[in-house]
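Supplementary Data S3. Sequence and structure tokens for construct A.
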Amino acid sequence: MDKLANPAPGFQRNPDKAITVEPYRGSVIVRAGDTVVARSTRAKVLSEPPYADAFYIPFDDIDFSKLAATEHSTHCPYKGDASYWSVREAGEVGENAMWAYETPFDEMAEIRNHGAFYTSKVTVEAEPG
């Protein structure tokens, strides 16, 4: 295997950690009240036990005019640094409702240019195809 240019330190320390990314076969709609924030038939499902699965939606399928970038960020030793956006329509509840790894570690390159949403802040509807 070729040497990774930007390897995840988490996987180096814990090579048995399992994170999978699979295409979701169906459609995903993200709403804040009656406002559709994202709609996709190209979402991916990221599974990272013990956490709940998360839908990662391509940036092209997210209506960024409904979002506002924030200064909030977090770091994951497996995925990298996450940027956050608030959903304008949701007000205070929608603060930092979407996150994305814009430059993820090599092992998680599949989620580059994809955003995920907190289901406690917006409604995420998944319809199997």
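Construct B, processed identically:
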Amino acid sequence: MALKVLHIVILASVKYMLTLPYAMIIGMEYKYAILALLGGGIGGFLFFYYLSKPVLKGWRALLPQICQRVPVSIKQRVQLFCSSKNKKPRKRFTRRKRFLVKVKTTYGLWGIIIATPLFLTIPVGAFLANKYYSRRKNIVFYMILSIVSWGMVYSGIILLFPRIFFQ
């Protein structure tokens, strides 16, 4: 039982939306599934929120050293990545980057808070919240409130439609 709870906590810290139905499908008790979902979601958010700033600082510090030690055989492939600071490489926009920019510009802070457990994953939402809104006073509280609220919505759906998960 402890391994199931640990498994659900780890899964909830990354893929929040899929965790509660998965916990019900593998036969976990409802109260433990809810506690593992909330603990994993909140713990995952706090972990990724406070980890993202040092990781970005470390990456920026290591990037010049990494680019100096790139083997000659792949130097052309990473030329844009390792170009000098004066010449900025051309940005490539993928679907995911466009979606993230659209969420940030259109919906702002509240869009990130609401969409993190639902559409974005917990690590991506924590990274965006830390990168763009870390100076806001209650960002951590609002994100935890969003995670708990979505957990209640998911649990309500499972209680309303039990035949889907309890066969």
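The mean pLDDT is 82. The helical segments are 2-12, 16-25, 30-68, 95-118, 122-133, 139-160, 162-165.
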